Amino acid sequence: MRRSGELKKALGATDAASLYAGVKQVILDKIQSGEWPPKHRVPSENQLVQELGVSKMTANRALRELASEGELIRIQGVGSFVAERKGASALFEVRNIAEEIAERGHSHQATVIALAQITASPEIADALGLDIGSPVFHSLIVHLENGVPVQIEDRHVHPAVAPDYLGQDFSITTPNAYLQAIAPLSGSEHVVEAALPQPWECKLLLIQKTEPCLSIRRRTWSASHIVSTARLLYPGNRYRLESRVGSF
Questions:
Q1: Mean pLDDT of the chain
Q2: Rounded Cα–Cα distance for residues 128 and 145 (Å)
Q3: Is 66 helix (H, G, I), strand (E, B) or coil?
Q4: Rounded to two decimals, what is the model's pTM?
Q5: Is-contact 171 111, C-beta < 8 A?
Q6: For the domain with range 6-82, which CATH number is right: 3.10.129.10, 2.60.40.10, 1.10.1040.50, 1.10.10.10?
Q7: Nearest to residue 15, comparing CAs of 7, 4, 23?
Q8: Within the chain, which residue ranges are assigned CATH 1.10.10.10?
Q9: In CATH, what number does 87-242 get?
Q10: Separation in Å, CA 82 to CA 16, 78, 202, 211
Q11: Which of 4, 57, 239, 245 is least buried, going by the fewest C-beta atoms within 10 A?
Q12: 194 within 8 A of 157, measured Cβ to Cβ
């Protein structure tokens, strides 16, 4: 936070009707000048109210819109931070997220929320080519980049293809790396859509319930065997999906 009054001076004689836009511009000026670099914690709503003399509603709108535009990352209960360049994930390429993050020079961590054998629901049984109620392996993992959650991986695995799946430590390796090692990929299927997160997903990703997400539903094959079906959920303001086809 700068010395008292300096942000207010930067706000200037902004018209009251567009005051939130003035607050946004003050913050953007600090970001674009490099004074507030990536990961810098920006003033809270209460600090903006005190420093700029605006209402809490105005401060909230400015921070919320900057987050939706990808300029800030808002972590519930922690604060707002200047966003780094969005991480990118190959849209139709099945890659190890740990490797993607490492290629950007960043640190990957994983939190295993669930790892167990369950009975297949009709939807999961159909996706894996099993009978309803058959045993399947389930893992729920949150992947983090430099300590910030960037993906929920909700995966169901065919037990016959990966019988030792439940014995793996997925805080050290990833399901992708393990499955590729024992059942090399021969094909994949993807469904991509925008999604609003469920309340439990908001808690895991540390995002607001109104923040849009990117969802990929992916099935993979090895030879003629279905290996797994997974739902990958990304916060829209922290990640982008990209694809290139052909020669360049």
A1: 85
A2: 30
A3: helix
A4: 0.64
A5: yes
A6: 1.10.10.10
A7: 23
A8: 6-82
A9: 3.40.1410.10
A10: 26, 13, 20, 17
A11: 245
A12: no
User: SS in 3 state form for 109-126?
Assistant: EEEEEEEEEEECCHHHHH
Greatest Cα pair distance in the chain: 68
* 3-state SS, residue 9: helix
DSSP state letters, 167-179: GS-TTTS-HHHHH
pLDDT digit string (tens) for 147-176?
989 999 999 999 999 999 999 999 999 999
* 218 close to 189: Cβ distance less than 8 angstroms: yes
Instruction: Tell me the C-alpha distance between 141 and 184, whole Å.
Output: 21
Rounded to an integer, what distance in angstroms lies between the CA atom of residue 185 and that of residue 221? 6
Q: Which residue has the tokens 């509603």?
A: 57
Q: What is the pLDDT of residues 90-133, one digit of tens each?
A: 445 677 899 988 988 889 999 999 999 999 999 999 999 999 99
